[in-house]
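Ticket #4471: structure output looks truncated?

Reporter: J.K.
Steps to reproduce: submitted the chain below (184 residues) through the standard prediction queue, then opened the result file.
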Amino acid sequence: MWLPFVTAAVGSFFGSVGGFLSALTMARRAERYKTTTDLMNEYFSIDFTHHRESLFQTGRRLATGDVDVDDIALGFWFPGGLCYIGETYASLTEHQHLTVYIGYIVRLADSVSRRRVDLTTLQNGLGTELLWEYGLVSKVAHAAARQADKAGAPTPSWPDSVKTVHDSVLAPRIAKQHRNRQEK
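Returned output as attached by the reporter:
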């Protein structure tokens, strides 16, 4: 007599748990999509283009020998020292543009490590774009970590973020491009 009621109660319980888990999964997916879209929109925004242009100019100066990576890196660890400030673009110095870009990389790495973004979308959308600035940023990261270690100062954490972005966004995209070239 009571078996139909127990069956209905158990069925409704498992149905509500399933519905809750489904709604939770959908909410997480929507949040990941929003975070991914926000990060990509920021990178491709007009304002952020100024930072990327400045990094390009700094990279050119580094390649021609007009500036040394150690001079740039002095401004990115504590206490550091007198660092390369550079030219002014869009009312910020090259050092300030690089600081903003590093802040973006740190936020991107944090979102990647906390699984708040869709990696496939980031790899396809930003993978090749981030390569343009990666050379400069990785050289500055290595120099800053080396200088801090040599001075006995705390090593900055942002070079780890550069490595995280490289390993999770850039390296898979590079490998995919390499495979595609080999298949042709």
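Triage note (M.O.): checked the attachment and the full token line is present. The CA atoms of residues 4 and 27 lie 34 Å apart.
Status: closed, working as intended.
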